[in-house]
From TrEMBL:
UniProt xrefs under Pfam families: T-box (PF00907)
PROSITE patterns in the record: TBOX_1, TBOX_2, TBOX_3
Name this protein carries in UniProt: T-box domain-containing protein
Native source organism of the sequence: Anguilla anguilla (European freshwater eel)
Compartments, record wording: Nucleus
DNA sequence: TCGCCTAACACATTTGAATAGC
DNA sequence: AGCTATTCAAATGTGTTAGGCG
């Protein structure tokens, strides 16, 4: 069960004018990424449709935990079989038409042009990024659903999985290891046969949720933070001595020694704990942090610059008889294909 | 030798079916 | 008969670790 946070939203008030700067309120280090995203997204603007007729607002939940991770340098494990994100992306949406159906999707976009490497105790750039892989969208399993449903509770993308397996056909989001990414939310209005201009499309990126994809954690502080906050990793708390192997072999000389630093940063942060506890199924309120300012960038309204989405929406536009269910099914089929068109921002 | 990746592992949580009680 | 609560096993999600690979 999800509950709305009681704290004020970190509103991203998305102006209808797509050219208006939206990154001015971001921390300076995000500005480049947001600007690049907007440049990429500025490929074209088509009919914005009903979805833009209102002030659609999106806010990332669990900000304090995200901020804690970001302060250290968020890392996300990617595996061949797919690994969930922690923290998971969870957003509150307002300003949708309650009686209109929408599809919510999420994908990952490159944060910058760099490849990274872990050098002793910090991340350093390590050459230029590899070509971005074709977009894989994670379609929220509740899609399509009425706007009132999306606005009723925060929308969690906790089932989104990341992989480095480019051959996977299971709808996982494919990433390159040692590259930095940021989540991007897509809100697509489902077609309304009665309104030819009612197919809206909005995108929101979340620079504060940027992370480096890794196959093994590099920063022990991140490992500790994950262990302290992820219930599935509870077995590694208490200096990791819960594990059988650790009990049997207490001394390990490895770069991965999260237990050693388990007390260096003190007990579980109350704010981080609170943020986590407010996660899935917990009825707690996350208090607002002082710097919890706007962080998501709004991409332009209108049809997506991503050719996949553009082509799909054109197809729907041409086929007014396309029902909502067929439309959503089409998205799912397309997103599961191996060979999607290259994105306009592929490098 | 180094950096990165993979698979197996132990442990904890989540999920869902089966059962009991009202 | 239908609903709710409880129990329990299976499935799933974690980080750890050793070893492979280029």
């Amino acid at each position: 069960m999800f509950l709305h946070e009681e704290r004020p939203y970190c509103d991203y008030s998305f102006p209808l004018n797509p050219q208006q700067s939206t990154y001015s309120s971001f921390p300076p280090e995000w500005k480049d990424a947001v600007l690049r995203s907007q440049c990429r997204d500025a490929a074209k603007v088509e009919a914005q449709g009903e979805i833009c007729a209102q002030q659609t607002r999106v806010s990332l939940q669990g900000r304090e935990l995200w901020d804690t991770f970001r302060g250290i340098g968020t890392e996300m494990i990617i595996t061949k079989a797919g690994r969930r994100m922690f923290p998971a992306c969870k957003v509150s949406v307002t300003g949708l038409n309650p009686k209109t159906k929408y599809v919510l999707m999420m994908d990952m976009v490159p944060f910058d042009d760099s490849k990274y490497k872990w050098n002793k105790d910090r991340w350093e750039t390590n050459g230029v990024t590899e070509p971005h892989l074709p977009n894989r969208f994670f379609i929220h399993p509740d899609s399509p659903a009425l706007g009132e449903r999306w606005m009723q509770y925060p929308v969690s993308f906790h089932k989104l999985k990341l992989t480095n397996n480019t051959l996977n056909t299971n709808g996982l989001v494919i990433l390159h290891s040692m590259h930095k990414y940021q989540p991007r939310l897509h809100i697509l209005q489902t077609p309304d046969p009665c309104g030819p201009h009612s197919r809206g499309y909005l995108r929101f990126t979340f620079p504060e949720a940027a992370f480096i994809a890794v196959t093994a954690y590099q920063n022990p502080q991140i490992t500790k933070l994950k262990i302290d906050n992820n219930p599935f990793a509870k077995g590694f708390r208490d200096h990791g001595l819960n594990g059988k192997r650790q009990r049997e072999r207490p001394v390990q000389n490895s770069r991965k020694q999260p237990a050693e630093s388990s007390h260096e940063t003190g007990p579980r942060s109350p704010t981080a704990a609170k943020a986590f506890d407010a996660g899935d199924g917990a009825d707690l309120t996350v208090s607002s942090s002082e710097d919890a300012c706007a962080s998501a960038s709004r991409a332009e309204g209108g049809a997506g610059p991503n050719p996949f989405i553009s082509a799909f929406m054109r197809r729907c536009a041409a086929d007014t008889a396309c029902g909502v269910e067929e439309w959503a099914e089409g998205i799912k089929l397309l997103s599961s294909q191996d060979t999607l068109p290259a994105t306009p921002y592929a490098r």
